Amino acid sequence: MVPVTGTTGTLVLAGTPIGDVADAPPRLAAELETADIVAAEDTRRLRRLTQALGIHTTGRVVSYFEGNESARTPELVEALTGGARVLLVTDAGMPSVSDPGYRLVAAAVEKDIKVTAVPGPSAVLTALALSALPVDRFCFEGFLPRKAGERLGRLREVADERRTMVFFEAPHRLDDTLAAMAEVFGGDRRAAVCRELTKTYEEVKRGPLGELAVWAAEGVRGEITVVVEGAAESGPQELDAEELVRRVRVREEAGERRKEAIAAVAADAGLPKREVFDAVVAAKNAERTAPAKGKGPS
User: Fold this and answer.
1) Are 188 and 210 in contact (CB under 8 A)?
2) Which band of pLDDT confidence, cut at 50, 70 and 90, is reported for residue 297?
3) Is-contact 201 220, C-beta < 8 A?
4) 3-class DSSP state for residue 113?
5) Where are the alpha helices (DSSP H) in the chain?
6) Could you say which of 4, 184, 261, 281 would form a disulfide bridge with 251 (CB–CB 3.0 to 4.6 Å)?
7) Three-class secondary structure of residue 173 per DSSP
């Protein structure tokens, strides 16, 4: 039974170990033992975690995963409104970060319900720190689309991102993803593939994207986080016509109209729009007059 106190309860987002159970924050055990409701992404994994911690949950345990997140959120909000302390845990890391939780947090905040957190291990920050890439500015891109075309489109959207980028990826798609990154960002762009963080077979493979793509083609196992260096800052003098045309095409392929793409590239490069426009027109004219592949002059 959930106690009815006349005041709203509290939603607690609890970080869980990403590998080594010894990394569990001390508060996690206390919250698991005392919460009125524990909402878990996988109740079986929760059971293994509590056994490893040597504790028992006293509250009601319910599943809360991608498949039932929308349906279960109102039920949990109702419990919170009635005064319950609801603890949300996912399989590893922090709820809401590429895991269930966002809907529940948004719904709780809308009802003026208190939301707090038990900070814990983070694959994003751990990989970033181990990557040996700049950490002063970074962005998290989560999982890329599974379909090749959509994946390329998403990568092209961030081709000029100057911050270090962090991605999650499934091991069986890693080789395709790294190859796509090398195609869009350039094979020389520095990156790090972080595998099985905090676990027995932890590995961090650093190098240019082209080399990492070849390495991953042999097969990689485990939980994967990829960290990629941001695009280099380039002054106008460093951007030749070929590079200007490439940037316009990347934006066009991502869905921008040519006029807007030219204006954006010109603004980023600190150049007049006319200069970028002329480069695009010259490239188009060169393509029209170039002989077809396999055909030379007769």
Assistant:
1) yes
2) very low
3) no
4) coil
5) 26-34, 43-53, 69-81, 102-110, 123-130, 148-157, 174-185, 209-216, 241-253, 258-269, 273-289
6) 261
7) helix
| Proportion of the chain above pLDDT 70, given as a percent | 94
Q: Give the pLDDT band (50/70/90) at residue 130.
A: very high
| CA-based radius of gyration for the chain | 24
12 closest CA partner among 91, 85, 72, 94 = 85
Q: Give the span between the Cα atoms of 215 and 228, in whole angstroms.
A: 16
The pLDDT of residue 167 is above 60:
yes
CA distance linking residue 107 with residue 36, whole number of Å: 19
CA distance 209 to 108: 42
Q: Are 153 and 251 in contact (CB under 8 A)?
A: no
Distance (Å, whole) CA 40 – CA 57: 12
Q: Residue 293 — pLDDT band, cuts 50, 70, 90?
A: low
Q: Contact, 75 vs 1, CB < 8 A?
A: no
Write down the pLDDT at residue 292: 59
Which residues lie below 8 Å from residue 52, measured CB to CB, with a gap of 6+?
21
What pLDDT, on a 0 to 100 scale, did the predictor assign at position 298?
Answer: 39
Residues linked to residue 153 through DSSP beta bridges, in sequence order: none
- The rounded distance, in Å, linking the Cα atoms of 92 and 263 is 43
